[in-house]
Amino acid sequence: MADGADKTPLSFQDMILTLHAYWAARGCAILQPYDMRVGAGTFHPSTTLRSLGPEPWNVAYVQPSRRPTDGRYGENPNRLQHYYQYQVILKPSPADLQEQYLGSLAAIGIDPLLHDIRFVEDDWESPTLGAWGLGWEVWCDGMEVTQFTYFQQMGGFDCKPVAGELTYGLERLAMYIQNVDNVYDLRFSDAVGDVAAVSYGDVFLENEKQFSKWNFEVADTGTLFAGFKAAEDECNRAIEAGVPLAAYDQAIEASHLFNLLQARGVISVQERANYMARVRDLAKGSCKAWIDSQSERWTAKYPGWTL
Amino acid sequence: MTDFLLELRSEEIPARMQAGARATLETLFTNQMLAVDVAIGKITVWSTPRRLALIVRDLPLETNAVHEDIKGPRVGAPPAALEGFLRKTGLTQDQLVQSDGVWFARQHKPGRPMNDVLAEAIPAIIRAFAWPKSMRWGRDSASSESLRWVRPLSGIVAIFGEDLIACEVSGISAGFATRGHRFHCPGEITIGSASDYAEKLRACHVIVDHEERQSIIRDGAAKAAADAGLALVEDEGLVIENAGLTEWPVPLLGRFDTAFLEVPPEVIQLTARVNQKYFVVNGKDGKLANGFVCTANIDAVDGGKEVVAGNEKVLAARLSDARFFWEQDLAHPLESYLPKLESMLLYEGMGSLREKADRISTLAGWIAEQYFPERDPDTARRAGLLAKADLATGMVGEFPELQGVMGSYYAEKGGEKPGTVSALQQQYVAAVEGCIPACVALADRIDTLTLFFARNIKPTGSRDPFALRRAALQTIQTVLVNGTRLNLKRLVQKSHEIAAANDAIRQNLENVDGAAVSAELLDFFADRLKVQQREAGVRHDLIDAVFALGGEDDLVRLLARVKALQAFMATEDGTNLLAGYKRAANILKQVGEVSGNAAATPPTDADAVLLAALDSAEPAASAAVADERFTDAMAALASLRAPIDAFFDGVMVNDPDEDVRAYRLGLLSRFTGAVHGVADFSKIEG
């Protein structure tokens, strides 16, 4: 038997705590989730905005992520409208980023001589963030467990230097490690003394039912459309006022409202491209305003750095 | 003479780029050697996901010495010129040589050590290397000028004989050390020379020769299947891809629940292949079985049990997704998806897919009525209407590659006629066979071509974003494979009419000259036909010669005529007749206006013989053409060959007697006219 195979696999929360300890030991600041509804960990300003500019930036955090169209009313064992991503940003990307990453898999109990770990081409692109990078999806026995990307552009601007981004799909990884077929059966926490263990279903099953219904059936589309417009206007006002962090919040808001509108099925194929372009403009405008607000400091601190 | 090894190690290179990268590396290295006039022996280039390797046998130890003469002033030029030349070259006058009254400085350049040449060539190759997509990384990427590579470049091994070639690119220095398999042998290993490279890597769980990995996968996958009494469904693309994803490939057989086999085999194969890069297997009955072969990159400590279990789980999740779509889609008849096509828009101003379905239906029915003896226009209309419905189903949303195939399954389950099922199934293939399928495929493609050409959107150069060339080619192939006798021009006009019945589209067609559009489309078809027939060995100039007559838009008839013409042109009669034709045409071109009154009777016997030949050949040729007896038409032309030769040998066209001259010009004009009745010989080359 390989190491760890006879130990009880990590609970969901212990997996997160293990990753926190692992990346903290490698110099990452462990941040908390951003307090807004986002579609992925990449939307956290600590990734989007901080991947711009010359300053080193090493952080790790869990980001609750919402994809309204993926909701399945709690009936599908693999699909959720709300799930967790574990996000690591290392800027500049270290030469041993792959080895550091593989070390993290070992830390949570994946033995690479027992499981087939592969780096399979997957170029990442976020049309709503005006961002792209090259990298892989990392496979463990044929299952994608991580998106591994070297950011090349963010908000339409070159990343100088390039940041390495690791995005772990926590539920998938946990299902793998715990060998369960249904996400709701995951052990979220272990029993301690008289206190019973908590399952993922205990925490989230009801959320999935209610939010699937709200996302697909209930959410008032008039309010959502108005909210999109309001966020768009406020984003532009904040850009004007030179407060790009506040502007970016509104870009995030607009992006999420757009996702909800899609789940409500009220955005046609043509309109879709148009809405995405509007969100992209907000994200790009926020990135540009962020660069404008920082570039004097950056060039003073890093002589020779140019946009 | 000695051997050279270069290894460029990087993070995982996409499998699909490895073959191109090998070719690029070989070309760049060869060019570097050509630039220093070094002939190279055998080059071997290998790739794995983590390295590109090049081995060159028998490189010389140094480049050739060269003698170079630098031209100086003329002998006897002013002394200042000579002094200037001596200063420039650093020579004395007695070291110069004379040739043809000019001073030359003879310079001897010794050969350069190959080590130095390689030390310069390697960084140049790396910097010049063009990847389909490349990236920056690490600390250096703070500058836009930093090195680009497909993924971060992590090491260089460069050994000539047993010498290290000292060189450096972007902070990476060449050395003797590389790394073995990522998990089996993660430490450094030292390479001694080109000759121990592959074996040292093999000892560290890396098979560097991609072809060897391919055969391990090909044979291993077949064996894994055979051991379980199954037959591998061969897939060379998957063999190559998996070889590009592994350094130590281990094919393993996995299973899935037989209950999934109720899903169409195409779906299972696509899921396994595209998403998971697995091979599928057949059972003894030749039908898809509940097994698959995955290719691991490790010799797992448990023999692969966990790896197989994990892969089985992933495939099961994917197949249950697929089964979900299959069941959902089947819950409603195919026709019920039509309303969803309303929100799926074609290119702007061309309406929705729903409207296109109606157009295909109408046109397919019309084609069946007009051109197919089986005549089942109702089924053609029904098949046309349903052709695109599967685009709104969940399965095709998930797997766009299955368009058509899924429609045919759903149509079959829904009790549609076999012709409809077959039409849906074949609609995206090149040559569509059978009456109903052909009607639908032709209607679909002609509609597309007509609309785009009417909007003046045509392929230019290499740009053909709407695949119009393919649509035309497939139209041709479908017409020819069925031997369908149809008039393309009428078909295009009908398509135009049907499109114009739609209000939105009519607005876009308002200022369009329909006749001009169909003429353009016909030329477009002619061009595609030439390209398509080139492979079959049909001469493009002969196609031109028939097209140039105008009015021919029946491709089957046109090709029959071209083929008869090609056979004729291969005969001695054909080539001589062509020579006679060209001579006649030249004379007629030079004369311009004919003066004088043609003589009433043939002035000589040669004139009389040609006249008689024309009198019999003209009606014979035109009757044969009308009856589509093209070989007979060629025979009628052949009967003119001896008389026209005798005519040119025996008489002078430019007779001093104006009336005789006019008579003969008249004969020549009749002769070229008779030839034109069969083909425009002026287009024929040779």
Mind sketching the topology for me?
The complex is a heterodimer of chains A (307) and B (686).
Chain A: H1 12-24, E1 29-30, H2 45-48, E2 57-66, E3 82-91, H3 97-107, E4 117-121, E5 124-126, E6 131-140, E7 143-154, E8 157-158, E9 164-169, H4 170-178, E10 187-189, E11 198-199, H5 200-218, H6 221-240, H7 244-263, H8 269-301
Parallel strand pairs in A: 1-2
Antiparallel strand pairs in A: 2-3, 3-9, 4-6, 5-6, 6-7, 7-8, 7-9, 10-11
Helix pairs in contact in A: 6-7, 6-8, 7-8
Chain B: E1 2-10, H1 18-35, E2 43-48, E3 51-59, E4 66-74, H2 79-89, E5 96-99, E6 102-109, H3 114-128, E7 153-160, E8 163-164, E9 168-169, E10 172-175, E11 177-179, E12 188-190, H4 194-203, H5 210-227, E13 231-232, H6 236-243, E14 250-255, H7 265-275, E15 279-282, E16 288-296, H8 305-330, H9 353-371, H10 377-386, H11 394-398, H12 405-413, H13 418-426, H14 435-454, H15 468-482, H16 488-500, H17 503-509, H18 514-534, H19 540-547, H20 555-569, H21 572-591, H22 605-626, H23 630-638, H24 641-650, H25 658-676
Parallel strand pairs in B: 7-10
Antiparallel strand pairs in B: 1-3, 1-7, 2-3, 4-6, 5-6, 7-8, 9-10, 11-12, 13-15, 14-16, 15-16
Helix pairs in contact in B: 1-3, 5-6, 7-8, 9-10, 9-14, 9-16, 10-13, 10-14, 12-13, 13-14, 14-15, 14-16, 14-18, 15-18, 16-18, 18-19, 19-20, 20-23, 21-24, 21-25, 22-23, 22-24, 22-25
List keywords for this structure.
heterodimer, A: 307 residues, alpha+beta, 9-stranded mixed β-sheet, two-stranded antiparallel ribbon, 11 strands, globular, B: 686 residues, 7-stranded mixed β-sheet, 4-stranded antiparallel β-sheet, 25 helices, 13% strand, flat
